[in-house]
Amino acid sequence: MFLRLLFESFRRQKRRKSVALLAIALGMSIATAMIAVGNDIGDKINQELRSLGANLVVTPIEDTLDVNIGGVNLKPASEGAFINEQDLIKIKGIFWGHNIKGYAPFLNAPQKIQTRNGEVNAELIGTYFAQPLRYGKEEFTTGVRTVNPWWKVEGSWPQDYGDSPEQLPPDVLAGNKLARQAGLAIGDQIEVGGRKLRISGILNSGGDEDQAIVAPLHIAQIILHQPNAVRRVTVSALTKPEDAFARKDPDKMSPAVRDRWYCSPYANSIAYQLREVLPNARVEQIRPVEQNQGKVLSHVTGLMLMLTLAALLAAALAVSAAMAATILERRQEVGLMKSLGAGNTAVASLFLTEAAFLALAGGIIGFIAGAILAHRIGQSIFGSAIVVHPVVLAVVLFAAVLVTFVGSAGAVRKAMQFDPAVVLRGDA
Amino acid sequence: MTRTQLLLRLLLKAAWVRKDRALTALVSVAVVATIATAALTIYSDLESKLSREFRGFGANVIVTKTSGALTPSELAGISKTLGHAGDIVPVAYAIATEATSKSRIVVGGADIDKLRHLNSSWSFSNTGQGSALVGARVDETITHGGDLKLSFGNTSAVIKPAGFFHSGSDDDSRVYIPLDDFVRLTGIQPATALVHVEGRPQEVRNAISRLSSALPNAEVKPVRQVTQAQTAVVGKTRSVVLASSAVVVILIMLCMVATFTGSVLERRKDFAVMKALGASNQTVNFLFASESALLALTGSIAGYILGCAIAFWIGKANFDAAILPQPLLLVPVLLGSVVLALIASTAPLRLLQQIQPAGILRGE
Question: 3-state class of B156 per DSSP?
Fold first, then answer.
């Protein structure tokens, strides 16, 4: 009997039910889309903040001071200390290795550059462009193309180990300011330290590299007679914004607290882990980047969180209002049922079961629509999909049932308060 | 009773007798108006609020004189171009030799307070009574907290540190002393100015092009990684807020239209009774429309106020700066709500008009 009432109610009141279903589905697609976007915005903006470049810098502890004014390096190539290039792969092996998005080693020294127009003095910088590396079973590519995404190259990027035909000179980049001053163009040959190099591209970095020749690291090591040597490494790591706990000294912590500190991806703990694998290195935060990106990130995610909450609240209210509106109009039905002898419990359970069915159906439709919307937002703004976690479905269905119940319960109670006779006469 | 009085009475009674019905309609309009107001208010202020977050990155433009020093008139030109929106720190550099270790150190001369203000992300530790800022690596390799004996060619001086800083850049190998002392010791005037242009990405770009044309003898270089990140983050965040607000507002509007349409359809009996008593289609339409318009107006005014309050609070809580109400939004929000409510309530009437009132009253 109950099932038949339920079934007939859906069959005969298609219009009324579809209005309620539409409202629930709309509300729940808002919820799904906002939860998905709000949940993913942190990762997406963090990716955008990668364009600030590295947030950690590794230098040898024994190194002498840098003597660098306006992009002109006055420190001789032989002076100071170096990091062993072979050790760098260990960077990937630290506890937070997965958070290391890339690193770029640098070796630089002033050199005399022979061009077809004569000789100029300029800095020779050796680095990885997009060096394929292997750590254990993991293969990854790292270098300035990932770590310094603001570097723009006109022409083509050099190969890191592109010296396959021996007779061809290796490719390098010329900084745009140097190229202008010395009259260098793409395809030109230059000679540095007795080695012939070919310019494959003109670099525009907006920094000191604009006045330099940028070569693959191993070429620079050969020219500078510093095999395996690296002067400086910049590391781009995904970190958690620094708080008071992050600034504490790990050596003064109790073992349990220290473990918690060690296992949080703070810039300080990643720096600490880098020092463990590179014992002679000094690891420093690149403070403008590290200190601010967390702040920007937390404000963007905070904003989205609040917007999501506001939207969820609005959706809940809208769905409740819609449910209440449909049930309020069914007063006469309640009156009729009660006059035929139905108890309050029977009436309430019929209405709430109806509401639950509507909520589940609307929740599923809304989830699908919301997931599609979130996906579209991700694709069009960030060029990468926003994936909706399956857990969101459970949350949305639960929320849908809860909200429709809250919306219906008040209205059902109101409808039951009236005397059936009065309602049926149409006086209420 | 005149027609107007009758109309008013009908409107009042319709709202008063079925308070719950009026209330649900009111809530659904108010929700739409609230969320639309809040989202649009936040969106309109988002660019400048987020751009302020990039202040901590320090200088975003570096002006370098190609030869000679920056003249006072050029510096005045820079500050005139920037107006109030930015900081300028002129810096001069020279290489000094430290007396005991004989190592070479880059020494910068600048207004120390301004320099600290500009580079607020550096970590400073205050130790001494002196006036110089000493880079962390200088302190580690040479001074170890003590004074610094520097010689610049013929002149030499003892530099007392006011504090040490970590920056993570080349600056860690440098020492900064007050510009007056620097000029007295070296005779070199600043040729570089570190500039922070405050404002939205577009304003920063405009300021850079104005600076370039105002200073033909200097190189004006944006710190690309900062300006680029600012453009990317501000732009993307704005787009996300816009897209998600649009989704929310449109869907919730549809939800409201569904509620309105549904409740008008439920009132087919009212409609039939009016028609049976001799009301014309026009009168009935007018009655239903004015009822909805009144509800929508009330609901949207409440929604506008609530929406402004939400935006204000989000600004306070998230950006530490209130997002102020936009009076310009009031008219579109009110008008939009009323128009939507009118469409939602009169469209179903057209359906009902096709049915004979007698049929509805008989329950067909």
Answer: strand
Which domain covers residue B124, as residue numbers?
Answer: 60-222
pLDDT at position B288? 83
In a domain, A290, yes or no: no
At residue A222, the pLDDT reads 87
- A interface mutation test: which of B237, B270, B310 has the most A CBs within 10 A? B237
Q: Which of B224, B221, B118 is nearest to B171 (CA)?
A: B118
Question: Does B227 fall in a domain?
Answer: no
> Considering CB atoms only, which of A37, A295, A321 is closest to B240?
A37
A252 and A318 housed in the same domain: no
Task: Output the six-digit token pair for A297.
Answer: 């990130």
Percent share of chain A, pLDDT over 70: 97
Domain count, chain B: 2
Tell me: do A79 and A23 sit in the same domain. Answer: no
Q: Does residue A405 sit within a domain?
A: yes
Best residue in B45, B236, B248, B295 to probe A by mutation, most A CBs within 10 Å? Answer: B248
Ranges of chain B whose pLDDT falls below 50: none
Token pair, residue A408, equals 């219906």
Q: In angstroms, what CA-CA distances link A242 with A53, A147, A162, A266, B155?
A: 18, 21, 41, 6, 44
List, for residues A347-397, the tens digit of each pLDDT value: 888 888 888 888 999 999 999 999 999 998 888 888 888 888 888 899 899
B116 contact partners, CB below 8 Å, separation of at least 6 = B122, B124, B133
The three-state secondary structure class of A321 is helix
Which residues are registered as beta bridge partners of A215?
A126
Assess whether B197 and B88 both reside in one domain. Answer: yes
- State whether B191 and B81 are in the same domain: yes
Q: Percentages helix, strand, coil for chain A, rounded to the nearest 5? A: 55, 20, 25
**Domain assignment of residue B228, yes or no:** no
A289 touches chain B (CB under 8 A): yes
Token couple for A78? 């032989």
pLDDT of res. B1: 67
Is A272 a member of any domain? yes
Residue B278, Ramachandran bin (φ over 0: left; ψ between -120 and 50: alpha; else beta) = left
The interface predicted TM-score of the complex, written ipTM, equals: 0.81
Look up residue B201 and give its two tokens.
């990405």
Instruction: Please check whether residues B167 and B207 belong to one and the same domain.
Output: yes
Both tokens of A252, joined, read 């003064």
Nearest C-alpha neighbor of A169 from the set A148, A153, A189, A185: A189
- For range A301-307, the mean pLDDT: 88
Residues A239 and A116 in one domain: yes
CB A377 to CB B256 under 8 A?
no
pLDDT at B274: 83
Residue B141 and residue B217 in one domain: yes
pLDDT above 70 (res A208) = yes
Range of the domain at A70: 55-285
Assigned domain for A187 exists: yes
A174, A211 contact by CB (below 8 A): no
Give the largest Cα separation in chain B, rounded: 112
The arithmetic mean of pLDDT across residues A209-236, rounded, is 89
Query: A167 to chain B nearest CA, in Å?
Result: 38
Give the pLDDT band of residue A128 (cuts 50, 70, 90): very high
* Same domain as A390, residue A299: yes
- What is the phi/psi pair of residue A69, to 5°? -125, 125
Both structure tokens of B84: 């109030």
| A260 CA to centre of own chain | 23
- pLDDT at residue A368 in the model: 93
User: What residue type is assigned to position A86 of the chain?
Assistant: Q
